[in-house]
Specification:
49% helix; single chain; alpha+beta
Amino acid sequence: MTEQTALRDLPKAIVPSVLKAARLLDQVATSRDALALGELSARLGLPKSSTLALCTSLTVSGLLKRYDDGTYHLGTRVVDLAHAYLVRTDVAKEFAQALDALKVFDEEGAVLAVRDGTDVVYMACRNGNQPVGVSYRIGMRLPASCTATGKALISTLSDSEVKALYRGKRLPQLTTNSCTTVGALLDDLRAVRERGFATDNEETRDGMCCIGVPIGEPLDGPAIAAVAVSMLKGTDTPAKREKAVETLKELAQMLLHRLKMLR
């Protein structure tokens, strides 16, 4: 079969219900609020009966989980699939090997994250032996506006792109230090661009501070991913911060080529 024939025949092979199920999962994954059947039906533009059939099938498969209040959330099967994907791409393995080669961040927690809308999703992590308040895991999601990786990633967007990203959305507040307005976030991002790294100063957890660096070439557009290190508040001395930034930039360069191949 030629490529032209395959492309011509492709629409016949598409299963509409699969596309609808994928759209439904996207809605659940990207929504800041828990979604019940009626809201999902409205967002998808589908009858409640059809939406219920999709939700039920996805729940049985483990891709969705229905809570007692009637809302739907991503199921544990999604994490299993994420793990399988990461194992095949070897990103987690290469992240660990890079940390081993650099011989750094044994005490602190180090992470590799990508952006999904206004969230960051962790693709690889290594928890340190300091009790920083967060136990990172692959597939974990946190708001980009609160995290060092998230701010490192969205700092590579323009101000207008950041405004569009958060239009009509509330900035989540995980602690009293979390940024709560787009204006304040833009000020923070301008500082990130100027100094070349992002910080999370007790914005995700009290008592924890983080430093993040984007992975990408400045002329290639938005960053592919970001790396960050977490440490206890009070241990973040100027000398330690300078060393962490230097090491994170080296780590970012080590991972850049591999991540480009996965795009």
